[in-house]
Each structure stands twice: as C-alpha cells, then as structure tokens.
Amino acid sequence: MTPTATPTRREQILKEAARLFAERGFHGVGVDEIGAAVGISGPGLYRHFAGKDAMLAELLVGISEQLLEGGRQRTEAADGVAPEAVLDSLIAGHIDFALDDRPLITLHDRELDRLRDADRKRVRRLQRQYVELWVEAVRRLYPEFAEPAARATVHAVFGLLNSTPHLGRPGALPGRAGMSELLHRLARGAFAAGAGVPARG
Fold this sequence. Notes:
Blueprint: H1 9-24, H2 31-38, H3 52-77, H4 83-100, H5 102-111, H6 117-141, H7 147-161, H8 176-195
Helix pairs in contact: 1-2, 1-5, 3-4, 3-5, 3-6, 4-6, 4-8, 6-7, 7-8
C-alpha cells in the first residue's frame, strides 16, 4: 500500500489490531473491540480473518516480509553506487519502519512466542535474511569489519532503531525529521565504531 492509497478493510483491521494488541496485550483485547475500532461487528471480522491468532500471524510475518523485500529493493536500486549510499538507504528504510510502525515493534517483542511454531520459524528465517542484507552492506563499506562483529553490530543497531516505542511521549521528542536524522547519525556512528574507524557523514 502506498502512503496515499486508501487502506482496504483488511488493512484497517490489522492496523487497529496492532495498536490494541500493543497497548493492552494480545489476551487483553477481544474481537468485538477490534471490530468496533474499524466500525464493524466482531463476528464480521471473521469474513477477513479466522481469529485473533490469524491477525497476529499476519502482522508479524507480514512486517518481516515487508522489511526483507524493502531491503532487497533498496540494495538492488543502489547497485553500482557507493557502498555508503547502500547502507544509508537501508538505515533510512528501517528508520521509516521504526517511526511509523511502533505498535508492531512492541507486538514483536511481547507476542512473538504466541505464534504457531511454523509462523514463528518463518519470522525468524525472514529476519535472518534481512540481517544478512545489512551485514553485506556494512562489510562493503567497512571491509576491515570481521563478519561476526559486523553481524553483532547490525543486531545492536536494530535494537537502537527499534527503541522508538520506549522513547517517551511523542511531544517530548524531536519532530519526525529531527528524530529520523538523529537515529541515522547514531546508526552510522555505531557501525563506524564497530569497525574501529572514524564516523562518516
């Protein structure tokens, strides 16, 4: 879905389910409440999803697929350009996710273990592939970066970027542009520090 597209009913349901699950926990939210949030009856949700478990799976598997696909598109679009631009593009894409999809970060942290084994393994597999995109981009920019250390630093940077749900009230933070710029500088600084070289940019 593009930013200007009208969300489908299914997308509306998932967005409200993510918000409610993040605010009150998976077991603290009923189907009727999710339905009320999008203006349909609780039973009406079953035309779109088999139940809350299916919503949770689609949310967590879906965002993992979107991050991986977005990362692949960014690295392919940057083919032939400076390694710095590739890493900057990956960082920018993940920052957009971290700022715009905070409920999904909270949901992943709290509820991943509630998924069926097959769905949880799928999420983990997608996440590993996403990490490897970053490891390759980091090591292209910093060839001296040993692979295990680069991978550990990628995970650490994800922790930094995904801290957005815990940064306090929105009004107490810089505006979106300022927060995006700050997170980008911090991420680039972490990679440079991990590689043992001065930060660039």
